[in-house]
Amino acid sequence: MQYLKGIGFRADNDQVYPDLVFSLPEAVIPHQDTKKSRRSVVGLGLMGDAGKYSVSRPSNEIYRAYLENLVRVVRWLLAHEHDVRLLIGDLDDVRATQEFRGLLGERLSVCDQGHIIDEPVFSVEGLLSQIAATDIVVATRFHNVLLALLCNKPVISISFHHKCESLMSTMGLSAYCLDINDLKADRLIEKFCNLETNAGKLKPLIREKVREFRKALDEQYKFIFNDM
Predict the structure, then answer these.
(1) Distance of alpha carbon 43 from its chain centroid, rounded?
(2) Using CA atoms in the order 189, 190, 193, 198, what is the torsion angle rounded to 10 degrees?
(3) In which region does residue 4 sit, left (phi positive, over 0), alpha (psi from -120 to 50) or beta (all else)?
């Protein structure tokens, strides 16, 4: 809306609605298996073109630092009894995931590599099922973050664009939004520990926000299709 006003469009009477993903039927949203192991599962969503929106540093420099910091985070997670599930947000990210697995192969023991879950996915339904099988999500792709919230998962967004910050702010989760241009493993680990500690309090708040967004979208659909 701010952009439209800035280029001369009259938008004073227009409304801003949540992302349409929040109106997906509840029937298609899978629920986590009640069977729990002693190790929690952290979903890690990679982004192949991470850094391309940066104006402060070369894209390849940000991308390399991004991968290296996430390798450090994965090593910490494994050392603290978490499993890690790699998530895809776009088929273009497959190459980045392969590159990341290569870095992990150089830094992890064979035993630790057994705690990395990396399964192909080719549909939104498949991605939702993988997200549902996690306890916490750390992601870069906007729709990884969006779908994690839809599945009521506490999430940390590694923000590459102001739309990520906007989403996290609207959800009341700005404290868990980190700028990709200044990503540091220690800071991400600190945020993860905080999120894990507060997950029980945050999940009802996320659920209520999703409910609120679904209601707003129902109103939008009624407004659009009222005369049809």
Answers:
(1) 8
(2) -140
(3) alpha
Residues 6+ apart with CB under 8 A from 51: 57, 58, 59, 60, 61, 62, 63, 66, 160, 180, 181
Angle between helices 142-150 and 185-225 (to 10 degrees): 70
Is 183 in contact with 173 (CB distance < 8 Å)? Answer: no
Residues 185 and 69: their CA atoms lie apart, in Å, by 5
Helix (H, G, I), strand (E, B) or coil at 16: coil
The DSSP string of 147-168 is: HHHHTT--EEEEESSHHHHHHH
Nearest CA among 66, 72, 73 for reference residue 47: 66
Kindly report the backbone phi and psi dihedral angles of residue 15, in degrees, each rounded to the nearest multiple of 5, phi listed first.
-110, 150
CA distance 140 to 46: 6
How far are the Cα atoms of 88, 142, 164, 218 from residue 161, in angstroms, in the given order?
18, 9, 6, 27
190-227 residue pLDDT tens? 999 999 999 999 999 999 999 999 999 999 999 888 86
Q: What is the pLDDT of residue 90?
A: 85
The structure's pTM equals 0.90
Sign of CA dihedral 56, 58, 59, 60: negative
Among residues 215, 205, 156, 162, the alpha carbon closest in space to that of 18 is found at 215
